[in-house]
Write a structure and sequence with these properties.
single chain; mainly beta; OB fold (Dihydrolipoamide Acetyltransferase, E2P); 4 domains; 5-stranded antiparallel sheet; 18 strands; 14% helix
Length: 277
Amino acid sequence: MRLGEKQELTVVKKVEFGVYLAEAAGAEERVLLPGKRVPVGIKEGDKIEVFVYKDSRDRIIATTAEPKIKMGEYAVLRVVSVQKIGAFLDWGLEKDLFLPYKEQSVKVREGDEILVRLYIDKSSRLCASMRGLYEMLSTDSPYEGGETVQGRVYEFSNNFGAFIAVDDKYSALLPKHEDHSYLRIGEVVEAKIVEVKPDGKLTLTMRDKAYLQMEEDAKHVLEILDQYAGVLPFTDKASPEIIMRETQMSKNAFKRAVGRLYREHKIEIVNHCIRKK
């Protein structure tokens, strides 16, 4: 019996509470297909396609229900509960799918819709993982540079940025120089393709064309100045970390916005501070 896979098995015995299935009539290993999943009129010797997993008592069991994910696949699943030992996901079967804490790239919350893959743990149980998705995503997207796409955030990297699955399928990256501190794992975002790399992976941007984005950034800086009673206690020469923490903007974006406001005589820079005029 192959856990986590659909397979064609033979009915070898009928009982009151269902039918037992095996790979062949004389095989010793059998699995129960519960009565409520048994097709009407089925008899011994018939073949039936089922999905094999484990029930709440860790017993191998078969079902004719269609799971939302199988071995070798990845899928978007909803978090139905978060417990001390991990989270549980809705995968279309009666027993929810377990997502251990060690397989979470970030802590998930109830209601999150996250991209996961299926694996078998050391105890021979089917579990979900948020890790190892990068190599599974497709690199043959139909998109070209300049197109706007939608994608789901599935991982963050301090070295590279935010990894995004465009259409929940295609491999893409929002580079680290773009502010992604406000994003959450599982969030669906709209972005523009900057580049289609030779290997098919996509590079994205969530910033509009520079002059349009600069206008939005300048408005944002003015709003922050209002929060600081008109005086910001640092300038565009501050460290990237301080600027990101206080403004949720990259240093380059902040610098461009401050430059624009200065040229428009809306601010002045004095004594290592920015003042609103």
